[in-house]
Amino acid sequence: MRASGPLAIIAAAVLWGTAGTAGALARAGGVDAGSLDLAAARLVIGGLLLGVPFLVRARGRVTGLGRAMPLAMAAVLAYQLCFFAAVDRTGVAIGTVVAIGSGPVFTGLLTWLFDRVRPSGGWAAATAAAIAGCALLLSGGGVDSGRDVTGGVLLALLGGLLYAFYVVTAARAIGRGAPSDLVMGVMFAGAGVLSAPLLLAGDASWLAEPYGLGVALYLGCATTALSYFLYGRGLRTTPVAAAATLALAEPAVAAVLGLVVLGERLPPVSWAGMALLMLALVAVARSAAGDTKAEPDTGPAAPASPLPRPATPGTLDGTDRRWRDGRDATGDQGDAA
Predict the structure, then answer these.
(1) How crowded is the C-beta side of 112, counted as CA atoms within 13 Å?
(2) Per-residue pLDDT tens for 249-268?
(3) pLDDT for the residue numbered 63
(4) Nearest Cα to 31, choosing from 291, 231, 285, 205?
(5) Would you say residue 190 has pLDDT above 60?
(6) At what angle do helices 249-260 and 268-293 cross, to 10 degrees?
């Protein structure tokens, strides 16, 4: 079923939305780990789980992913650093809404810049509604006096741009015929290697505690490895701009978990924002599913517009098979991004 693409994206966003609650529960349980420590452990564990199995299956052949892939690896790590630094300066509400809310905008603009594909008016309207919903949802938080709000907002915007860059880079590699599992595996394995020095430079003694290790494993296995595995699968049949908008389900999940698990309270304006966000996500999901169903049914699902088509005839399933046989399906097409 072609609608499985948007559903996989939303499932990934749901997992991402649990990360903040897991971190809060860890600190409440006495785990002495800062946000950067948790982020580094998350990337190291998730990168290993995503990267090693698929690199072994591909027999080390990782050609055809594009020259921008090393930059995407660094962007995965840099996004984490920018996001947490922004939250420290602005507070959770503003930092989260700017970083997450700007992601779909930057994704649509980068897709337009790299692939010369203008996002549809429907996408623009639904994305605007989703961002408005995020703003309302997170508006219950405040900003303490003395915070560096301007610097924090700029860092959050940079984080949104970095997120969009590595998502678009992954989507373009998948669009050229590279298996989504391999693309995500290579990208996050590289990010995990880059994160290892940060983890080792800090105090990693919390990983020796059973509860601390359990939290790190959950963050790495569920909110990174499984979530980005699903996200990569979803990108096979979901336009990358629509995928970034669907990922805005993350703050809604985080808000619900804060309400149910952490005992937080949502004001009426936040409930209104959640309703607006859900309506926008449903509109984007139906639009993305409709776009894929409108394509001729010539076999297994091909990459969805606005991603570029593979240079050689075939489908993603067909190119996946050639990769499994140890042969590069598209050759070394080193696009810039």
Answers:
(1) 11
(2) 887 787 778 777 877 666 78
(3) 61
(4) 205
(5) yes
(6) 140
- Token output for 326: 């140890």
Give the C-alpha separation, 170 to 182, whole Å: 10
- CA-based nearest residue to 6, from 123, 102, 124, 106: 123
Q: What is the pLDDT of residues 89-124, one digit of tens each?
A: 766 556 666 777 777 778 878 888 887 777 677 777
More confident residue, 298 or 28: 28
Q: Report the 3 state secondary structure along the chain.
A: CCCHHHHHHHHHHHHHHCHHHHHHHHHHCCCCCCHHHHHHHHHHHHHHHHHHHHHHHCCCCCCCCCCCHHHHHHHHHHHHHHHHHHHHHHCHHHHHHHHHHHHHHHHHHHHHHHHCCCCCHHHHHHHHHHHHHHHHHCCCCCCCCCCCHHHHHHHHHHHHHHHHHHHHHHHHHHHCCCCHHHHHHHHHHHHHHHHHHHHHHCCCHHHHCHHHHHHHHHHHHHHHHHHHHHHHHHHCCCCHHHHHHHCCHHHHHHHHHHHHCCCCCCCHHHHHHHHHHHHHHHHHHHHHHHHHHCCCCCCCCCCCCCCCCCCCCCCHHHHHHHHHCCCCCCCCCCCCC
With cut-offs at 50, 70 and 90, classify the pLDDT of residue 301. Answer: very low
* Residues 62 and 73 sit within 8 Å (Cβ to Cβ): no
Question: Do 213 and 207 meet the contact criterion of CB atoms below 8 Å apart?
Answer: yes
Nearest alpha carbon to residue 255 among 42, 14, 25 = 14
- How far is the C-alpha of 134 from the C-alpha of 65, rounded, in Å? 33
pLDDT digits (tens, 9 = 90+) for 306-325: 333 333 333 333 334 333 34
User: What pLDDT does residue 64 have?
Assistant: 63
